[in-house]
User: Fold these one by one.
Assistant:
Number 1:
Amino acid sequence: MFYIADLHTHSHYAGATSKSLNLETLYQWALIKGIDVVSTGDFTHPAWLKELQEKLQPAGNGFYTLKRLPPLNVLPGIKASERTIYFCLSVEVSCEYMINNRKYRTHQLIYAKDFEAVHYINTALSKYGNLTLDGRPSLQLQSHELFKIVLDIPRAYFVPAHVWTPWCSSIGAMEGHDSLSDCFKDVATELFAIETSLSADPLMCRQYDELDGLTLLSNSDAHSPRNLGREVNLLKTELGYDAMFNAFKTKQGFAGTYELFPQKGKCYNTGHRDCGVSIDADKITGNICAVCGKPLTIGVSHRVQQLANCKAVKENIQPFKYVLPLPEIFAELLNIKSDTPLHTVSVAKAYTKAIAYFGNEFDILHKVALEDIQRYYPKLATAINRLRNNEKQAVAGYDGIYGRINFFNEYELNEKQKQLALFG
Ligand SMILES: [Zn+2]
Ligand SMILES: [Zn+2]
Ligand SMILES: [Zn+2]
């Protein structure tokens, strides 16, 4: 069967996450977005683990379902088509260490098929850090040492998280290594997948040959429930833990990803947010901010250039389609400028109505026929058509500031010209 999986999420126990991030809200947003499998996140945290054990029941396929399904109430009047939402036990941990006086910090994802495997993982990891402090615990051990521990635990899998981001990543510019083999040493060959990050896409990844052969996963890393599904993985195989990871290992049954436009990510360009300095990768002349003299944060597009070693365009690029959260598309259509468009009543109303009509968000973005959207809301059809054809204008994100994607130019959005431009 075809299904969609978002495998990097957190609970409200992880740092800088929403208080409302829990199983019930993840369940609801999975329905609204059109996701089948959602990670639990944070299973090393004792209080969250207790909640997982109390609220989840085994589905018989290595995933879990909620014992008690919550009513849909995250948005007033929201309705979505029915589907079973499966949870996959997961955690993200932070490896923090010094080598030759340089500080390294890398984030790594770990998955478990059952609570017994979770118990083995938590027992092993508790020797290296305090698991009660944060849903994403800091561990005093090197990335390859962590990977070795996970390799020894049955029914557990390991995936390096958001590998390109400047901070907290395996090959990131600021705190990472210069190659996966330097990061994972003798076990690097055991890797079968990496998570790319919101600011990278498969086209960028294919410029660096160390990633050839690895499956490029994409997840939301949602810190609030409504950010679920910013990026997701597509599968066409048996629905279950073993089959899903087998698809990641062999690429058989892996159908690619839905990718956020990488410029939308908050680490695409190199820059310095305090000074409003953002520099395209091909215009970088140094790593110092010209305004204040402090170091620039190296963006993902520049990091890819630093490590790039394949100039030739490859034929075997992993399949993917671009996505942008539907509330942001409605915000553009309604001329609302906001970083949290669903907080605006008109956007929330338009979004809720569209989800009720078409069933879920991913169907609208990539499945529903354009003619059907055209009949429903012509302007939306134009935006979706442009999304599907990668016709957009982008202002790239940098140093923690999200980028902007627009499907219309100012002329088209001008009230007087609108009819002409869109339907003329
Ligand atoms: Zn992370
Ligand atoms: Zn995370
Ligand atoms: Zn500066």
Note: The first strand starts at residue 2 and ends at 6.
Number 2:
Amino acid sequence: MKILITGGAGFIGSHVADACIAEGHEVVVVDNLRTGFARNLNPKARFVMMDVCDPLLANLIDEEQPDIVDHHAAQISVPLSIEDPLTDAEINVKGLINLLEACVKHKVKKVIYISSGGAIYGEAQEYPTPETYNPRPLSVYAINKMAGEHYLHLYNHLYGLDYTVLRYANVFGPRQVSHGEAGVVSIFTEKLLKGEIPTINSYPEEPEGMIRDYVYVKDIVEANLLAFTNGSGETLNIGTCIPTSTRALYNEIGAQLGFCPQPQTSPARKGDLRRSLLKIDKAHEILGWQPSCSLTEGIAQVIDYYKNLLGEKV
Ligand SMILES: NC(=O)c1ccc[n+]([C@@H]2O[C@H](COP(=O)([O-])OP(=O)(O)OC[C@H]3O[C@@H](n4cnc5c(N)ncnc54)[C@H](O)[C@@H]3O)[C@@H](O)[C@H]2O)c1
């Protein structure tokens, strides 16, 4: 099949691109390198440097005729979405509509839409949270991801455009940037390798930090590959259903590195949820998917990646 991956120079999209190519698919990557990197691009993919808001996206889709569009491009920072809501809406809503219009016009068979199970449910009362829970988003990012899901349903209803929505938990793995607000595994690993003291953000009554559902990027990739041919019209949580506090995560990374100093602490940031944990039975039922990589194994991969990246500096 021919797969067009938006955001394919980013952390997750580039892993999806690699796996598609390894499976024998033809891949086109559309990315404006806003937060992605040329070094993540698979040389066997065709790379088109383009903004998803660009009207020329329709011409590209006409020219390429992809079977599947896998939409990973997004503004991904929760704090930034609150500071600058218009930019978030520009990319995450307007960019999506531009893409969907092009997909309908040029008869793309299916769109995989990446939503966020780690954000859209808000402070859910049901824990772990199933897809049937009524989302109560608590950030601009989460509202716009949720709006995106509605657009997918609408374009299916109006034009018959097939789709699967994947609601990711907190994804981690090699290539995740360590200088953003997300990606705490990368942030802790890089800082500890450099001998710096990381900071744990927490609410005063929960000093161990937030509870999160950390899922390794290879498992995320597998869910995408399965969704190419399964899960039509479905919305699926993709996580592990295993709760981990920021402190427990920190301790695991420190233990693997053999260097675990007392971390600094700082208040939770605007939009930080206290806990998030996804129920994942539906993805198993519909896609036959389940996570296979443990947090310990995944962290070992991230440590290897950072040791290579930082070279002799550590
Ligand atoms: N990382 C996570 O834990 C997580 C969790 C839930 C959902 N997601 C979603 O997964 C997707 C990928 O996230 P990621 O962690 O790989 O982030 P990332 O920042 O590494 O990847 C996003 C990519 O999109 C590109 N991009 C941004 N704006 C663009 C635009 N206007 N036009 C074209 N390209 C643009 C960036 O350059 C980057 O390569 C996003 O949709 C994100 O919302 C991520």
Note: The domain at 172-212+242-278+293-313 is CATH 3.90.25.10 (UDP-galactose 4-epimerase; domain 1).
